[in-house]
Amino acid sequence: MSDDAQDGSAGARVGQTTQPSGFASIDRTTFFVSAAFIGVVALIGVLFTEQLADVSSSALTWVTNTFGWLFILTATGFVVFALILAFGKYGNIPLSQEGEKPEFSTPSWIAMMFSAGMGIGLMFFGVYEPVSHLAAPPPFVDTEAGSPEAAHHAMAYTFFHWGVHPWAIYAVVGLAIAYSTHRMGRANLVSSAFEGFFRGRRRTPAATKIVDIFAIIATQFGTATSLGFGALQIAAGIALLQTGQITGEASVSTAIVVILVLTSGAAVSAASGVGKGIRYLSNTNMIAAGVLLLFVFVAGPTVFILDLVPAGIGAYVSNFLEMSLRSSVFGGTEWLASWTIFYWAWWVSWAPYVGTFIAKISRGRSIREFVVGALFTPTAVGVIWFSVFGGTGIDLQRNGVDVAGTGSEEEAFFVALGELPLSTVSTVVAVVLISIFFITSADSGGVVLGTLSTRGSEEPWKPIVVFWVFLSGAVAAVLLLIGGLVVVLSRTVLGGATGPDLITVLKRTGMLELAFGVALGLVLWLG
Asked: Which one of 130, 280, 320, 508 is most buried, counting C-beta atoms within 10 A?
């Protein structure tokens, strides 16, 4: 019998044992250490606001400037690795045992994956990023701001930052965990992907707990970032609906109230489980997003958008390799650190959260189906989304509406909607949509954190899930109080700044698990 089969059979036997329930299900070391660390960071933020803001900003600058080259190579490496897994000899391997069927329908699977992966981000940057690149092209692009050529590069870089690269990171990490959990019969933990490294040698429980602790910390700050984005944008929408004007800056106090209210809704959703609250809300999200997308497409510059789709895809594809390997060796350091390297650091730091969640919902799918679904479907949706909303913003910018001049990511979306018919109705729909994205991000994050802190339980103890949901909201509120978006993002990138020593894991492991483990180890180390 092969090692794979032996390991899988053993895992299946282990999985059939009775799991502790209630408070006894908690891995106390993992839970209390990670919760204490997160709580201490939040407390420091309250007591030493300016100092933590300065340290976080400086540390973020140092990480992106010093390790930018590594983030660039790693992100591109994930794309190559994901494609090899999907279309190589491993593609037909099922992420299950005994011919299990997928737990969720393909539409629900994609909707949940998409909502957890970057739903709020698409609303937050959907208009702002393309318009920003149009108004201020990258320094290594020889074109005039606002020109048609600048618009081509604006769409190319937007597709690049939200396309196959981030989803390749998510797909590889998620696949590592899904393969370990559903194929090998292990617990649904990030550390389970490292089990193969201990084959034939003494396993160190402390090492696996450290991996899960760092995964929890990275997940917590990643979730807080998403909630911070959503709360700021909802606050901007509420202010617009109340005053009828763009204020230029979202109210942090309103954003914190939004966090308190929506976190309560997220706790209820999370407590109902993945198969109910998260699935239903994700499906609702996709329908509402589709309605808003169709409205903007019809009410906006329809022909311009249709022309922009092939032009943007062409610019993305033709410049793909150059953008993928672009470094600051000959200039553009500040721009790359603010955009590409920052995005890669953000996606890497968020990968344990998204990877664990999509692994949890992907039982029964093949490696090829998993990678293709996680890599190309969200990328295609992102291309359509940015073409419609970003294209509308670009058209407005080139026709005299200074969308980029708002200087505010959270308000640019509403500026674009304000130039279309039925702007009040569309703004209300957008606020509701962002609110649902907020809830799905918070509750899926709570489920992941609950799973990681209860030894990989398929149905984590509901009070612990609710605890993590509320802690995510509290951390987001504290980070907004500290200094707004910059600090929220810097804590995300720095949230899991240490990881396992990769040199020690290169021995005595199967090739597929080795590849998974190295990729996942890079995520934890870079995150």
From this structure: 130
Residue indicated by tokens 């209210």? 261
Please check whether residue 430 is in contact with residue 258, taking contact to mean a CB–CB distance below 8 angstroms: no
366 three-class SS:
strand
Task: Count CB-CB contacts under 10 A for residue 346.
Answer: 20
pTM of the model: 0.83
- What distance, in Å, lies between the first and last C-alpha atoms of the chain? 38
* 66 is a domain residue: yes
Structural tokens at position 224: 């807080």
Helix 511-526, helix 164-178: angle, nearest 10 = 120
Rounded CA-CA distance 503/459 in Å is 35
Rounded to whole angstroms, how far apart are CA atoms 437 and 262? 10
Is the residue at 455 inside a domain? yes
Beta strands in 75-154 (DSSP E): none
Q: Cβ distance 331 to 149 under 8 Å?
A: no
* Number of other residues whose CB lies within 10 A of the CB of residue 444: 34
pLDDT of residue 250: 59
Q: Is residue 10 part of a domain?
A: no
Alpha-carbon distances, residue 412 vs 204, 222, 233, 276, 340 (angstroms): 50, 23, 10, 34, 20
Quote the number of domains for the chain: 1
Cα angle for residues 507, 508, 512 (degrees, 5° grid)? 95
Q: Does residue 174 sit within a domain?
A: yes
Smallest CA-to-CA distance from 116 within 266, 305, 309, 334 is with 266
Q: CA dihedral defined by 462, 468, 469, 474, rounded to 10 degrees?
A: 150
Q: What is the CATH number of the domain that holds 48?
A: 1.20.1740
* Residue 358 half-sphere exposure toward CB, CA atoms < 13 A: 34
Domain holding 474, by residue range, is: 25-526
Q: Are 23 and 462 in contact (CB under 8 A)?
A: no
- Give pLDDT tens digits for 375-418: 998 899 999 999 999 999 999 999 999 998 876 777 889 999 99
3-state secondary structure 454-506: CCCCCCCCHHHHHHHHHHHHHHHHHHHHHHCHHHHHHHHHCCCCCCCCHHHHC
